[in-house]
Write the C-alpha coordinates for this entry.
Amino acid sequence: MLLRLVLQRAAFAVLTLFAVSALIFIGTELLPGDVATAILGQQATPETVAAIRRDLGLDRPPLERYLNWITAFAHGDFGRSLANGLPIVQLVSGRLQNTLILACTAALIAVPLSIALGLYAALRRERLADHAISAITLLLVSVPEFLIGYALMLGLAVQLGWFPALSLLREGDSLLAWARALVLPVLTLTAVTLAHTMRLTRTAIVSVLSAEYIRMAEIKGIGPARIIVRHALPNALSPILSIVMLTLAYLVVGVVVVESVFNYSGMGKLMVDAVTARDLPLVQACGLIFSVVYIIGNFLSDFLGILANPRLRHPK
Amino acid sequence: MKSRWFAAICGGFIVLVVLAAILAPFIAPYGETALAADPWEKWTLAHPLGTDNLGRDMLTRLLFGTRNTVLVAFGATLASFVVGVTLAFLAAVFSGWIDQLLSRGVDILMSIPTLIMALVVLSVMGTSIPVLICVMAALDSTRVFRLARALAVDVMALDFVETARLRGEGFWWFLRREILPNVMPSLLAEFGLRFSFAALFLSSLSFLGLGIRPPHADLGGMVKENAAAIGFGIAAPLLPALMIGLITVAVNALVDWQLRRSAQPVRRA
Protein backbone atom coordinates (compact mmCIF):
# COMPACT_ATOMS: atom_id res chain seq x y z
CA MET A 1 0.00 0.00 0.00
CA LEU A 2 2.66 2.44 1.14
CA LEU A 3 5.14 1.30 -1.48
CA ARG A 4 2.53 1.52 -4.20
CA LEU A 5 1.65 5.11 -3.27
CA VAL A 6 5.31 6.16 -3.23
CA LEU A 7 5.98 4.47 -6.56
CA GLN A 8 2.92 6.17 -8.03
CA ARG A 9 4.21 9.58 -6.92
CA ALA A 10 7.70 8.83 -8.23
CA ALA A 11 6.30 7.77 -11.59
CA PHE A 12 4.24 10.97 -11.75
CA ALA A 13 7.32 13.07 -10.93
CA VAL A 14 9.33 11.42 -13.72
CA LEU A 15 6.45 11.84 -16.16
CA THR A 16 6.15 15.51 -15.16
CA LEU A 17 9.87 16.04 -15.68
CA PHE A 18 9.58 14.73 -19.22
CA ALA A 19 6.45 16.77 -19.90
CA VAL A 20 8.13 19.93 -18.59
CA SER A 21 11.27 19.40 -20.62
CA ALA A 22 9.12 18.79 -23.71
CA LEU A 23 7.07 21.95 -22.99
CA ILE A 24 10.19 24.07 -22.55
CA PHE A 25 11.64 22.58 -25.72
CA ILE A 26 8.47 23.14 -27.73
CA GLY A 27 8.13 26.60 -26.23
CA THR A 28 11.58 27.75 -27.28
CA GLU A 29 12.14 25.76 -30.48
CA LEU A 30 8.86 25.55 -32.31
CA LEU A 31 7.19 28.85 -31.55
CA PRO A 32 7.73 31.59 -34.14
CA GLY A 33 11.06 33.38 -33.91
CA ASP A 34 13.76 30.70 -33.62
CA VAL A 35 17.36 30.84 -32.47
CA ALA A 36 18.80 31.56 -35.91
CA THR A 37 16.83 34.78 -36.38
CA ALA A 38 17.56 35.67 -32.75
CA ILE A 39 21.33 35.45 -33.39
CA LEU A 40 21.24 37.41 -36.63
CA GLY A 41 18.71 40.02 -35.56
CA GLN A 42 18.33 42.73 -38.19
CA GLN A 43 20.86 41.30 -40.66
CA ALA A 44 18.95 38.06 -41.24
CA THR A 45 18.72 37.06 -44.87
CA PRO A 46 17.21 33.72 -45.95
CA GLU A 47 20.69 32.36 -46.83
CA THR A 48 22.42 33.28 -43.57
CA VAL A 49 19.45 31.99 -41.55
CA ALA A 50 19.64 28.67 -43.41
CA ALA A 51 23.41 28.44 -42.82
CA ILE A 52 23.10 29.05 -39.10
CA ARG A 53 20.20 26.63 -38.83
CA ARG A 54 22.44 23.97 -40.42
CA ASP A 55 25.34 24.83 -38.06
CA LEU A 56 23.16 24.52 -34.98
CA GLY A 57 21.40 21.39 -36.25
CA LEU A 58 18.06 23.21 -36.41
CA ASP A 59 17.23 21.62 -39.78
CA ARG A 60 16.90 18.18 -38.11
CA PRO A 61 13.46 16.79 -37.24
CA PRO A 62 12.12 18.15 -33.91
CA LEU A 63 11.95 14.77 -32.15
CA GLU A 64 15.60 14.04 -32.91
CA ARG A 65 16.62 17.49 -31.69
CA TYR A 66 14.61 17.06 -28.50
CA LEU A 67 16.23 13.68 -27.74
CA ASN A 68 19.72 15.10 -28.42
CA TRP A 69 19.00 18.10 -26.21
CA ILE A 70 17.63 16.10 -23.29
CA THR A 71 20.44 13.49 -23.38
CA ALA A 72 23.05 16.26 -23.47
CA PHE A 73 21.29 17.94 -20.56
CA ALA A 74 21.28 14.70 -18.56
CA HIS A 75 25.06 14.47 -19.11
CA GLY A 76 25.59 17.99 -17.82
CA ASP A 77 26.11 19.59 -21.23
CA PHE A 78 23.75 22.57 -21.39
CA GLY A 79 25.10 24.02 -24.63
CA ARG A 80 26.49 27.50 -25.17
CA SER A 81 25.04 30.92 -24.45
CA LEU A 82 24.07 32.94 -27.53
CA ALA A 83 25.03 36.25 -25.95
CA ASN A 84 28.70 35.55 -25.18
CA GLY A 85 29.40 32.04 -26.50
CA LEU A 86 30.44 30.72 -23.05
CA PRO A 87 29.41 27.20 -22.00
CA ILE A 88 26.20 27.49 -19.98
CA VAL A 89 27.51 25.12 -17.26
CA GLN A 90 30.20 27.68 -16.48
CA LEU A 91 27.64 30.54 -16.28
CA VAL A 92 25.20 28.55 -14.15
CA SER A 93 27.39 26.81 -11.56
CA GLY A 94 28.44 29.82 -9.45
CA ARG A 95 25.00 31.42 -9.73
CA LEU A 96 23.26 28.22 -8.63
CA GLN A 97 25.46 28.09 -5.56
CA ASN A 98 24.61 31.71 -4.65
CA THR A 99 20.91 31.03 -5.05
CA LEU A 100 21.09 27.87 -2.93
CA ILE A 101 22.92 29.77 -0.17
CA LEU A 102 20.21 32.47 -0.21
CA ALA A 103 17.27 30.04 -0.30
CA CYS A 104 18.70 27.66 2.32
CA THR A 105 19.49 30.44 4.78
CA ALA A 106 15.97 31.81 4.39
CA ALA A 107 14.52 28.30 4.85
CA LEU A 108 16.60 27.63 7.97
CA ILE A 109 15.10 30.74 9.60
CA ALA A 110 11.59 30.65 8.16
CA VAL A 111 10.68 26.98 8.68
CA PRO A 112 11.27 26.58 12.46
CA LEU A 113 9.93 30.08 13.17
CA SER A 114 6.76 29.60 11.14
CA ILE A 115 6.00 26.19 12.71
CA ALA A 116 6.49 27.64 16.19
CA LEU A 117 4.26 30.64 15.38
CA GLY A 118 1.67 28.43 13.68
CA LEU A 119 1.54 26.13 16.71
CA TYR A 120 1.26 29.11 19.05
CA ALA A 121 -1.54 30.70 16.99
CA ALA A 122 -3.39 27.36 16.80
CA LEU A 123 -3.20 26.86 20.58
CA ARG A 124 -4.42 30.43 21.26
CA ARG A 125 -6.98 30.30 18.44
CA GLU A 126 -9.69 32.95 18.38
CA ARG A 127 -7.75 34.97 20.98
CA LEU A 128 -5.88 38.26 20.56
CA ALA A 129 -2.46 36.74 19.72
CA ASP A 130 -4.01 34.55 17.02
CA HIS A 131 -5.91 37.45 15.43
CA ALA A 132 -2.81 39.66 15.49
CA ILE A 133 -0.62 36.98 13.86
CA SER A 134 -3.33 36.24 11.29
CA ALA A 135 -3.73 39.91 10.32
CA ILE A 136 0.02 40.46 9.92
CA THR A 137 0.53 37.31 7.86
CA LEU A 138 -2.50 38.10 5.66
CA LEU A 139 -0.90 41.47 4.94
CA LEU A 140 2.49 39.87 4.15
CA VAL A 141 0.88 37.32 1.81
CA SER A 142 -1.06 40.00 -0.09
CA VAL A 143 1.70 42.49 -0.83
CA PRO A 144 4.25 41.93 -3.60
CA GLU A 145 7.73 40.70 -2.61
CA PHE A 146 9.36 43.84 -3.96
CA LEU A 147 7.33 46.10 -1.64
CA ILE A 148 8.75 44.24 1.38
CA GLY A 149 12.20 44.27 -0.21
CA TYR A 150 12.29 48.00 -0.97
CA ALA A 151 10.70 48.94 2.35
CA LEU A 152 13.44 46.99 4.19
CA MET A 153 16.06 48.55 1.92
CA LEU A 154 14.81 52.10 2.57
CA GLY A 155 14.61 51.55 6.33
CA LEU A 156 17.55 49.33 7.22
CA ALA A 157 20.05 50.17 4.46
CA VAL A 158 19.46 53.79 3.43
CA GLN A 159 18.07 55.42 6.57
CA LEU A 160 19.95 53.42 9.21
CA GLY A 161 22.90 52.28 7.10
CA TRP A 162 23.18 48.92 8.85
CA PHE A 163 23.46 46.81 5.69
CA PRO A 164 24.46 47.42 2.07
CA ALA A 165 21.42 48.32 -0.08
CA LEU A 166 22.54 46.17 -3.01
CA SER A 167 23.90 42.69 -2.40
CA LEU A 168 26.81 42.78 -4.82
CA LEU A 169 29.00 39.74 -4.24
CA ARG A 170 32.62 40.23 -5.26
CA GLU A 171 35.49 37.74 -5.35
CA GLY A 172 37.76 38.11 -2.34
CA ASP A 173 35.22 39.77 -0.08
CA SER A 174 35.48 38.75 3.55
CA LEU A 175 32.98 36.33 5.02
CA LEU A 176 31.51 39.16 7.09
CA ALA A 177 30.86 41.27 3.97
CA TRP A 178 29.09 38.29 2.41
CA ALA A 179 26.97 37.79 5.50
CA ARG A 180 26.03 41.50 5.60
CA ALA A 181 25.10 41.42 1.91
CA LEU A 182 22.88 38.41 2.53
CA VAL A 183 20.86 39.91 5.40
CA LEU A 184 18.29 41.98 3.45
CA PRO A 185 17.45 39.40 0.73
CA VAL A 186 17.21 36.68 3.38
CA LEU A 187 14.93 38.86 5.53
CA THR A 188 12.65 39.59 2.56
CA LEU A 189 12.38 35.94 1.54
CA THR A 190 11.84 34.93 5.16
CA ALA A 191 9.01 37.42 5.58
CA VAL A 192 7.18 36.15 2.49
CA THR A 193 7.60 32.42 3.15
CA LEU A 194 7.03 32.80 6.88
CA ALA A 195 3.56 34.15 6.23
CA HIS A 196 2.60 31.34 3.82
CA THR A 197 3.99 28.52 5.96
CA MET A 198 2.60 29.87 9.19
CA ARG A 199 -0.94 30.15 7.84
CA LEU A 200 -0.85 26.60 6.48
CA THR A 201 0.65 25.22 9.73
CA ARG A 202 -2.03 26.92 11.79
CA THR A 203 -4.80 25.46 9.61
CA ALA A 204 -3.27 21.96 9.75
CA ILE A 205 -2.96 21.97 13.55
CA VAL A 206 -6.40 23.51 14.11
CA SER A 207 -7.98 20.79 11.99
CA VAL A 208 -6.15 18.07 13.94
CA LEU A 209 -7.06 19.67 17.30
CA SER A 210 -10.75 19.70 16.38
CA ALA A 211 -10.71 15.94 15.63
CA GLU A 212 -12.77 13.63 17.82
CA TYR A 213 -9.85 11.65 19.19
CA ILE A 214 -8.40 14.87 20.67
CA ARG A 215 -11.79 15.53 22.29
CA MET A 216 -11.68 11.97 23.65
CA ALA A 217 -8.19 12.50 25.07
CA GLU A 218 -9.37 15.70 26.77
CA ILE A 219 -12.38 13.90 28.26
CA LYS A 220 -10.08 11.15 29.55
CA GLY A 221 -8.28 13.92 31.47
CA ILE A 222 -4.92 13.89 29.70
CA GLY A 223 -2.88 17.09 30.14
CA PRO A 224 -2.53 19.56 27.25
CA ALA A 225 1.23 18.96 26.79
CA ARG A 226 0.72 15.19 26.48
CA ILE A 227 -2.20 15.68 24.07
CA ILE A 228 0.00 17.75 21.79
CA VAL A 229 3.02 15.45 21.89
CA ARG A 230 1.30 12.04 21.86
CA HIS A 231 -1.89 12.69 19.91
CA ALA A 232 -1.83 15.90 17.88
CA LEU A 233 1.77 16.05 16.62
CA PRO A 234 1.99 12.56 15.04
CA ASN A 235 -1.15 13.31 13.05
CA ALA A 236 -0.17 16.88 12.18
CA LEU A 237 3.35 15.83 11.16
CA SER A 238 2.35 14.71 7.69
CA PRO A 239 0.67 17.99 6.64
CA ILE A 240 3.44 20.01 8.30
CA LEU A 241 6.15 18.12 6.39
CA SER A 242 4.30 18.72 3.14
CA ILE A 243 4.06 22.40 4.00
CA VAL A 244 7.79 22.62 4.71
CA MET A 245 8.68 21.06 1.37
CA LEU A 246 6.19 23.28 -0.44
CA THR A 247 7.89 26.27 1.20
CA LEU A 248 11.22 25.12 -0.14
CA ALA A 249 9.78 24.66 -3.61
CA TYR A 250 8.23 28.14 -3.36
CA LEU A 251 11.56 29.62 -2.25
CA VAL A 252 13.21 28.35 -5.42
CA VAL A 253 10.87 30.53 -7.47
CA GLY A 254 10.53 33.39 -4.97
CA VAL A 255 14.23 34.11 -5.35
CA VAL A 256 13.69 35.39 -8.91
CA VAL A 257 12.06 38.66 -7.79
CA VAL A 258 14.13 39.08 -4.62
CA GLU A 259 17.41 38.64 -6.48
CA SER A 260 16.33 41.34 -8.94
CA VAL A 261 15.46 43.75 -6.11
CA PHE A 262 18.85 43.43 -4.44
CA ASN A 263 20.90 42.83 -7.60
CA TYR A 264 22.03 39.53 -6.07
CA SER A 265 23.87 37.47 -8.66
CA GLY A 266 21.98 34.20 -8.55
CA MET A 267 20.06 31.92 -10.89
CA GLY A 268 16.93 34.08 -10.85
CA LYS A 269 18.77 37.19 -12.01
CA LEU A 270 20.63 35.11 -14.60
CA MET A 271 17.35 33.82 -16.03
CA VAL A 272 15.69 37.25 -16.11
CA ASP A 273 18.72 38.72 -17.88
CA ALA A 274 18.68 35.82 -20.35
CA VAL A 275 14.99 36.39 -21.08
CA THR A 276 15.59 40.12 -21.62
CA ALA A 277 18.48 39.37 -24.00
CA ARG A 278 16.44 36.54 -25.65
CA ASP A 279 19.36 34.18 -25.04
CA LEU A 280 17.21 31.09 -25.69
CA PRO A 281 19.64 28.24 -24.82
CA LEU A 282 20.36 29.92 -21.48
CA VAL A 283 16.62 30.45 -20.85
CA GLN A 284 15.99 26.75 -21.59
CA ALA A 285 18.73 25.62 -19.22
CA CYS A 286 17.63 27.94 -16.39
CA GLY A 287 13.97 27.03 -16.87
CA LEU A 288 14.72 23.32 -16.77
CA ILE A 289 16.96 23.61 -13.69
CA PHE A 290 14.30 25.62 -11.81
CA SER A 291 11.60 23.12 -12.82
CA VAL A 292 13.70 20.10 -11.82
CA VAL A 293 14.37 21.54 -8.36
CA TYR A 294 10.69 22.48 -7.96
CA ILE A 295 9.40 19.06 -9.08
CA ILE A 296 11.87 17.20 -6.83
CA GLY A 297 10.73 19.45 -3.96
CA ASN A 298 7.10 18.61 -4.66
CA PHE A 299 7.87 14.88 -4.87
CA LEU A 300 9.79 14.93 -1.57
CA SER A 301 6.88 16.77 0.02
CA ASP A 302 4.47 14.02 -1.09
CA PHE A 303 6.95 11.30 -0.12
CA LEU A 304 7.65 12.60 3.39
CA GLY A 305 3.96 13.35 3.86
CA ILE A 306 3.09 9.72 3.08
CA LEU A 307 5.89 8.39 5.31
CA ALA A 308 4.84 10.58 8.23
CA ASN A 309 1.16 9.71 7.99
CA PRO A 310 0.41 7.12 10.71
CA ARG A 311 -2.75 5.94 8.94
CA LEU A 312 -0.81 5.04 5.80
CA ARG A 313 2.06 3.44 7.76
CA HIS A 314 -0.28 1.22 9.79
CA PRO A 315 -3.16 0.32 7.48
CA LYS A 316 -6.06 -1.53 9.10
CA MET B 1 -20.03 44.40 13.19
CA LYS B 2 -16.47 45.65 13.02
CA SER B 3 -15.66 43.33 10.10
CA ARG B 4 -18.62 44.83 8.26
CA TRP B 5 -17.17 48.33 8.47
CA PHE B 6 -13.82 47.04 7.29
CA ALA B 7 -15.52 45.29 4.37
CA ALA B 8 -17.34 48.53 3.50
CA ILE B 9 -14.06 50.45 3.47
CA CYS B 10 -12.47 47.79 1.24
CA GLY B 11 -15.49 47.83 -1.07
CA GLY B 12 -15.34 51.63 -1.30
CA PHE B 13 -11.66 51.47 -2.12
CA ILE B 14 -12.31 48.93 -4.89
CA VAL B 15 -15.00 51.20 -6.37
CA LEU B 16 -12.45 54.05 -6.36
CA VAL B 17 -9.87 51.84 -8.08
CA VAL B 18 -12.38 50.83 -10.76
CA LEU B 19 -13.34 54.49 -11.29
CA ALA B 20 -9.67 55.47 -11.53
CA ALA B 21 -9.08 52.68 -14.05
CA ILE B 22 -11.96 53.82 -16.26
CA LEU B 23 -11.58 57.57 -15.89
CA ALA B 24 -7.77 57.89 -15.78
CA PRO B 25 -7.48 59.70 -19.16
CA PHE B 26 -10.09 62.29 -18.04
CA ILE B 27 -9.10 62.98 -14.44
CA ALA B 28 -5.30 62.76 -14.65
CA PRO B 29 -3.74 66.24 -14.35
CA TYR B 30 -1.07 65.52 -17.02
CA GLY B 31 -0.63 63.19 -20.03
CA GLU B 32 0.47 59.58 -19.43
CA THR B 33 3.97 60.16 -20.78
CA ALA B 34 4.22 63.97 -20.54
CA LEU B 35 7.45 65.30 -19.03
CA ALA B 36 6.18 67.83 -16.51
CA ALA B 37 9.16 68.77 -14.32
CA ASP B 38 12.56 67.62 -13.01
CA PRO B 39 13.03 64.01 -11.86
CA TRP B 40 11.95 63.12 -8.32
CA GLU B 41 10.64 66.50 -7.26
CA LYS B 42 9.20 66.99 -3.80
CA TRP B 43 5.43 66.80 -3.19
CA THR B 44 3.94 70.18 -4.19
CA LEU B 45 0.52 71.51 -5.18
CA ALA B 46 1.41 71.17 -8.88
CA HIS B 47 2.60 67.59 -8.33
CA PRO B 48 0.73 66.21 -5.28
CA LEU B 49 2.84 63.02 -5.20
CA GLY B 50 6.01 64.47 -6.73
CA THR B 51 7.51 63.32 -10.04
CA ASP B 52 9.12 60.08 -11.21
CA ASN B 53 12.57 59.19 -12.55
CA LEU B 54 12.00 61.09 -15.83
CA GLY B 55 10.10 63.99 -14.30
CA ARG B 56 6.60 62.74 -15.13
CA ASP B 57 3.82 63.54 -12.66
CA MET B 58 3.60 60.69 -10.14
CA LEU B 59 -0.16 60.99 -9.52
CA THR B 60 -0.82 60.78 -13.27
CA ARG B 61 1.47 57.78 -13.64
CA LEU B 62 -0.22 56.08 -10.67
CA LEU B 63 -3.68 56.60 -12.19
CA PHE B 64 -2.60 55.24 -15.59
CA GLY B 65 -0.55 52.48 -13.96
CA THR B 66 -3.58 51.35 -11.96
CA ARG B 67 -5.65 51.48 -15.14
CA ASN B 68 -3.24 49.34 -17.19
CA THR B 69 -2.50 46.84 -14.42
CA VAL B 70 -6.16 46.40 -13.45
CA LEU B 71 -7.39 46.08 -17.05
CA VAL B 72 -4.77 43.51 -18.11
CA ALA B 73 -5.17 41.50 -14.88
CA PHE B 74 -8.96 41.60 -15.28
CA GLY B 75 -8.74 40.50 -18.94
CA ALA B 76 -6.40 37.62 -18.05
CA THR B 77 -8.63 36.49 -15.17
CA LEU B 78 -11.74 36.64 -17.33
CA ALA B 79 -10.04 34.59 -20.07
CA SER B 80 -8.73 32.04 -17.57
CA PHE B 81 -12.28 31.61 -16.18
CA VAL B 82 -13.84 31.16 -19.62
CA VAL B 83 -11.27 28.48 -20.54
CA GLY B 84 -10.97 26.83 -17.12
CA VAL B 85 -14.70 26.71 -16.33
CA THR B 86 -15.72 25.46 -19.80
CA LEU B 87 -13.17 22.63 -19.69
CA ALA B 88 -14.09 21.82 -16.08
CA PHE B 89 -17.80 21.53 -16.91
CA LEU B 90 -17.00 19.36 -19.95
CA ALA B 91 -14.96 17.10 -17.68
CA ALA B 92 -17.71 16.94 -15.05
CA VAL B 93 -20.63 16.33 -17.43
CA PHE B 94 -18.97 13.77 -19.74
CA SER B 95 -16.55 12.29 -17.13
CA GLY B 96 -14.78 9.15 -18.46
CA TRP B 97 -11.70 9.62 -20.62
CA ILE B 98 -12.30 13.34 -21.31
CA ASP B 99 -12.15 13.97 -17.58
CA GLN B 100 -9.03 11.77 -17.16
CA LEU B 101 -7.21 13.47 -20.03
CA LEU B 102 -8.02 17.02 -18.87
CA SER B 103 -7.36 16.34 -15.18
CA ARG B 104 -3.99 14.63 -15.70
CA GLY B 105 -2.94 17.36 -18.13
CA VAL B 106 -3.78 19.99 -15.53
CA ASP B 107 -1.90 18.00 -12.85
CA ILE B 108 1.23 18.15 -14.97
CA LEU B 109 0.86 21.84 -15.85
CA MET B 110 0.35 22.70 -12.19
CA SER B 111 3.60 21.05 -11.15
CA ILE B 112 5.60 23.59 -13.17
CA PRO B 113 6.44 26.84 -11.40
CA THR B 114 4.22 29.45 -13.13
CA LEU B 115 6.73 32.31 -13.10
CA ILE B 116 9.37 30.10 -14.76
CA MET B 117 6.97 28.90 -17.45
CA ALA B 118 5.87 32.49 -18.12
CA LEU B 119 9.51 33.60 -18.44
CA VAL B 120 10.24 30.81 -20.94
CA VAL B 121 7.23 31.62 -23.13
CA LEU B 122 7.75 35.41 -22.95
CA SER B 123 11.41 35.03 -23.96
CA VAL B 124 10.23 33.53 -27.24
CA MET B 125 7.02 35.40 -27.95
CA GLY B 126 8.21 38.77 -26.72
CA THR B 127 5.98 40.87 -24.48
CA SER B 128 2.90 42.45 -25.96
CA ILE B 129 -0.41 42.87 -24.17
CA PRO B 130 -2.25 40.07 -26.08
CA VAL B 131 0.64 37.63 -25.42
CA LEU B 132 0.72 38.64 -21.73
CA ILE B 133 -3.02 38.07 -21.35
CA CYS B 134 -2.86 34.68 -23.12
CA VAL B 135 0.12 33.43 -21.09
CA MET B 136 -1.38 34.55 -17.77
CA ALA B 137 -4.78 33.13 -18.68
CA ALA B 138 -3.33 29.77 -19.76
CA LEU B 139 -1.30 29.40 -16.58
CA ASP B 140 -4.16 30.47 -14.32
CA SER B 141 -6.88 28.42 -16.03
CA THR B 142 -5.41 25.24 -14.49
CA ARG B 143 -6.22 26.51 -10.98
CA VAL B 144 -9.71 27.55 -12.09
CA PHE B 145 -10.22 24.11 -13.71
CA ARG B 146 -9.37 22.31 -10.45
CA LEU B 147 -11.92 24.26 -8.41
CA ALA B 148 -14.70 24.40 -11.02
CA ARG B 149 -14.40 20.65 -11.71
CA ALA B 150 -14.63 19.79 -8.01
CA LEU B 151 -17.70 22.02 -7.64
CA ALA B 152 -19.39 20.71 -10.79
CA VAL B 153 -18.74 17.05 -9.92
CA ASP B 154 -20.52 17.62 -6.58
CA VAL B 155 -23.53 19.10 -8.38
CA MET B 156 -23.63 16.29 -10.94
CA ALA B 157 -23.84 13.72 -8.12
CA LEU B 158 -27.11 15.22 -6.79
CA ASP B 159 -30.40 13.33 -7.22
CA PHE B 160 -32.22 15.90 -9.36
CA VAL B 161 -29.31 15.91 -11.82
CA GLU B 162 -29.47 12.13 -12.01
CA THR B 163 -33.14 12.49 -12.93
CA ALA B 164 -32.28 14.99 -15.65
CA ARG B 165 -29.65 12.62 -17.01
CA LEU B 166 -32.26 9.88 -17.27
CA ARG B 167 -34.49 12.35 -19.10
CA GLY B 168 -31.65 12.60 -21.64
CA GLU B 169 -30.78 16.30 -21.33
CA GLY B 170 -27.72 17.62 -23.21
CA PHE B 171 -24.52 19.41 -22.11
CA TRP B 172 -25.77 22.98 -22.48
CA TRP B 173 -28.94 22.22 -20.53
CA PHE B 174 -26.89 20.86 -17.60
CA LEU B 175 -24.58 23.84 -17.80
CA ARG B 176 -27.33 26.46 -17.79
CA ARG B 177 -29.97 24.90 -15.57
CA GLU B 178 -28.11 22.74 -13.05
CA ILE B 179 -24.43 23.54 -12.69
CA LEU B 180 -24.07 27.31 -13.17
CA PRO B 181 -26.75 28.41 -10.68
CA ASN B 182 -25.31 26.09 -8.03
CA VAL B 183 -21.64 26.98 -8.38
CA MET B 184 -21.93 30.73 -9.17
CA PRO B 185 -21.30 32.09 -5.64
CA SER B 186 -18.11 30.02 -5.16
CA LEU B 187 -16.87 30.93 -8.63
CA LEU B 188 -17.42 34.65 -7.99
CA ALA B 189 -15.39 34.47 -4.78
CA GLU B 190 -12.67 32.60 -6.63
CA PHE B 191 -12.74 35.27 -9.35
CA GLY B 192 -11.85 37.93 -6.78
CA LEU B 193 -8.96 35.92 -5.40
CA ARG B 194 -7.62 34.97 -8.82
CA PHE B 195 -7.86 38.61 -9.93
CA SER B 196 -5.68 39.76 -7.05
CA PHE B 197 -3.16 36.99 -7.79
CA ALA B 198 -3.17 38.03 -11.46
CA ALA B 199 -2.49 41.67 -10.50
CA LEU B 200 0.42 40.55 -8.27
CA PHE B 201 1.78 38.23 -10.98
CA LEU B 202 1.56 40.90 -13.67
CA SER B 203 3.31 43.37 -11.38
CA SER B 204 6.11 40.86 -10.77
CA LEU B 205 6.52 40.37 -14.52
CA SER B 206 6.52 44.11 -15.18
CA PHE B 207 8.93 44.60 -12.32
CA LEU B 208 11.29 42.10 -13.97
CA GLY B 209 10.94 44.14 -17.19
CA LEU B 210 8.82 41.51 -18.96
CA GLY B 211 5.30 42.86 -18.53
CA ILE B 212 3.63 45.94 -19.97
CA ARG B 213 6.22 47.83 -22.01
CA PRO B 214 7.34 51.38 -21.21
CA PRO B 215 6.52 54.20 -21.80
CA HIS B 216 3.09 52.90 -20.73
CA ALA B 217 2.60 53.18 -17.00
CA ASP B 218 2.23 49.97 -15.03
CA LEU B 219 2.43 49.58 -11.26
CA GLY B 220 5.17 46.89 -11.30
CA GLY B 221 7.13 48.66 -14.01
CA MET B 222 6.94 51.96 -12.09
CA VAL B 223 8.59 50.26 -9.10
CA LYS B 224 11.45 49.17 -11.34
CA GLU B 225 11.80 52.58 -13.05
CA ASN B 226 11.98 54.42 -9.75
CA ALA B 227 14.06 51.83 -7.86
CA ALA B 228 17.20 53.97 -7.90
CA ALA B 229 15.41 56.67 -5.86
CA ILE B 230 15.66 54.43 -2.77
CA GLY B 231 19.40 55.10 -2.70
CA PHE B 232 18.66 58.82 -2.13
CA GLY B 233 16.14 58.04 0.57
CA ILE B 234 13.17 58.92 -1.67
CA ALA B 235 10.15 56.63 -1.33
CA ALA B 236 8.96 56.99 -4.96
CA PRO B 237 9.04 53.23 -5.81
CA LEU B 238 7.07 52.42 -2.67
CA LEU B 239 3.97 54.34 -3.91
CA PRO B 240 3.10 52.01 -6.84
CA ALA B 241 4.13 48.97 -4.76
CA LEU B 242 1.80 50.14 -2.00
CA MET B 243 -1.00 50.62 -4.54
CA ILE B 244 -0.71 46.96 -5.65
CA GLY B 245 -0.67 45.87 -2.03
CA LEU B 246 -3.78 47.93 -1.20
CA ILE B 247 -5.71 46.54 -4.17
CA THR B 248 -4.91 42.91 -3.33
CA VAL B 249 -5.57 43.35 0.40
CA ALA B 250 -8.91 45.04 -0.31
CA VAL B 251 -10.06 42.35 -2.76
CA ASN B 252 -8.91 39.53 -0.44
CA ALA B 253 -10.61 41.06 2.58
CA LEU B 254 -13.87 41.60 0.70
CA VAL B 255 -13.92 38.01 -0.63
CA ASP B 256 -13.08 36.71 2.84
CA TRP B 257 -15.95 38.69 4.37
CA GLN B 258 -18.39 37.54 1.67
CA LEU B 259 -17.42 33.87 2.17
CA ARG B 260 -17.79 34.07 5.95
CA ARG B 261 -21.15 35.85 5.58
CA SER B 262 -22.52 33.26 3.17
CA ALA B 263 -21.28 30.45 5.44
CA GLN B 264 -23.60 31.69 8.23
CA PRO B 265 -27.18 30.41 8.23
CA VAL B 266 -29.59 32.74 6.41
CA ARG B 267 -31.95 34.60 8.71
CA ARG B 268 -35.36 35.04 7.20
CA ALA B 269 -37.38 38.13 7.97
